[in-house]
Design a protein that fits this description.
- This protein is mainly α.
- The protein has a single domain, classed as ABC transporter involved in vitamin B12 uptake, BtuC (Orthogonal Bundle), CATH 1.10.3470.
- Helix content is 78%, strand content 0%.
- The chain is built from 16 helices and no strands.
- Helix 1 runs antiparallel to helix 8 and helix 8 runs antiparallel to helix 11.
- The longest helix has 27 residues.
- It starts with a helix and ends with a helix.
Amino acid sequence: MSGIARDVALLALGVLLLGAVPLLSPPDYAMHVFITMALTALAGTGWAMMGRFGLVSFGHGAFLGAAAYAMALLWNEAGLTPWLGIPIGVAVAVAIGMLLAYPAFRLRVVGHYFALVTLAAGEIVRILIVALRDHTGGSLGMTPVQAPPGQQFLAMQFDKTGFWWIALIAWAGGLLAWRLLDRSMSSKALAAISEDEDAAASIGIRVTREKMKVTVISVALAGLAGALTAQYRQYLNPESLAGLGISLQIVFGAIAGGMYAPFGPTIGAIITIGLDEALRIGFGTEFTGGAPLVYGLLLVLFMLFLPRGIAGLFERRARRAAAKPAAERATA
């Protein structure tokens, strides 16, 4: 069995095992947290595919919001089923990402300058959503039209068990995309580009094309996560789907979990959503807006003391454990 076939088989087995969670009859609140973790992990996986090659984005919330609102508006105003609206929403997010990334890459906007460009783009999308309040509901948000009885499948309005399966399949698809990129030559080219663009270009690597490839994949995964999150919640709000807060949450989760390991963003999503729920339950409305502050402080600590995240810590310990017997044999 080839490596990719083995990975697909393992992911399918994992989805089947995790898909059995509803059979344990967990509380609705627990299922809500699990679904949110899976969709957040999908967005974090998309972000990490760029971040680990030095393309740091603080505007991924823009892509979540663009896909989510495009899908919801197509359903509310044109009656287009989310089964078609979600791919169109993802395409809208990818188009925005390409319009943003192509000139930035051509003009050699790198490092913290690229991060600032993405940050500005995220705020532009959020402000645009608020400005189009006649269609989007503005800062009050909007609610997708509820489907009449018997048309829930067409409207993609499922219970938590149905959405748990959708979230799992999307999460597994993100991990598969990560694995395919890792096994491709683009991964080697992007690693060379992140070290020195001029040197990479001098040996024949098409820098802009390779950057655009990984950007499209990253933005598509983020857009898919945003559209599915909006469809699951049945409520869209610019602050929770397109603001700086959601972008910072994605960045924190990917870095804390480990953006260099495939399951790192998933670990980060578990930490992030767990922390978010703990703050909400523990402080309620008394700490409104405090989550981004906590994310920011923890992000600084992780970057200083655990730059490769929790997954990187586990990998380092595993390497030490594997090297210890060899060192003992050499000493003997």
